[in-house]
Design a protein that fits this description.
9 helices; 3% strand; single chain; 3-stranded antiparallel sheet; hpI Integrase, Chain A; mainly alpha
């Protein structure tokens, strides 16, 4: 197929060589609380070299985006065809799945606080980059796709994390927050562009406690109650930036 000697791939629909019952579910490598998300991101912010992936970690937990979708976001996006373009409370993204039923994410209030913080940090650290998640100094590209998961694995091995976490696990936390607030899985599947629908979502993230469907969930948020507990609080103090709750002016 790569050499264009075949017009069809004869093994494209072969059986998969793994047992679904043995597959690691996304929720198993996801944070289970708002405090955990901000603690982990705060650890990443302790090292200047991992600040970018600290923001990536927060973004994927706040919006449930896949790694490739997240890293493609650009600050210089000019229209709805370019990932990172903001229109009101919507940001357009480039979906990893070919069947993109939902071309944008909703910039919810907590997410807008995160975006404002990222903007302030970027002006200080990377004022000239077009990327939301830039590579190292001198790089003209975004940070590598496997960098965050590799760093989380190292943090687990050296004892700074008590459990394995991955970049993709951010989607698991997003699902948890939605479910805890009574959001139906069908809506969450659409928001995540989970083309497999409810079945795939529940295979990856498990079942939902029934009483959560009736408004009796813990109602988790993406932000801690106190600003001093924001993941970037110490980083901003070091950089001389204000830890506030300003939100970016909406684009029209």
């Amino acid at each position: 197929m790569r050499q264009e000697k075949l017009i069809a791939n004869p093994i494209s629909k072969r059986d998969r060589y793994y047992s679904p019952s043995e597959a690691r579910k996304t929720k198993e490598v996801a944070c289970s609380s708002t405090e955990e998300v901000h603690t982990v991101a705060g650890l990443l912010f302790e090292d200047k070299r991992s600040e970018v992936i600290g923001w990536q970690f927060l973004w994927e937990n706040f919006f449930g985006m896949r790694t490739g979708e997240t890293l493609a976001l650009r600050r210089d996006a000019k229209d709805t065809e370019q990932p990172g373009f903001i229109q009101g409370d919507s940001m357009y993204v480039r979906r990893a799945e070919k069947n993109a039923d939902n071309p944008c994410i909703y910039l919810h209030p907590d997410g807008q606080v995160l975006l404002a913080a990222m903007d302030a940090w970027s002006k200080k650290r990377y004022p000239d980059t077009p990327w939301y998640f830039p590579g190292g100094r001198g790089s003209s590209d975004h940070v590598g796709e496997g960098v965050l998961t590799q760093r989380l694995e190292l943090m687990f091995k050296d004892g700074r994390l008590t459990k394995k976490l991955t970049s993709h696990g951010g989607r698991g936390f997003y699902v948890l927050v939605n479910r805890s607030n009574g959001v139906h899985d069908s809506q969450t599947a659409a928001e995540l562009n989970q083309v497999g629908g409810l079945e795939t979502l529940r295979e990856s993230y498990g079942v939902i406690p029934q009483h959560w469907l009736h408004g009796k969930g813990p109602k988790l948020k993406w932000l801690p109650a106190e600003k001093k507990d924001y993941a970037w609080a110490r980083l901003f103090t070091k950089l001389g930036l204000k830890v506030g709750d300003e939100v970016p002016a909406p684009s029209v």
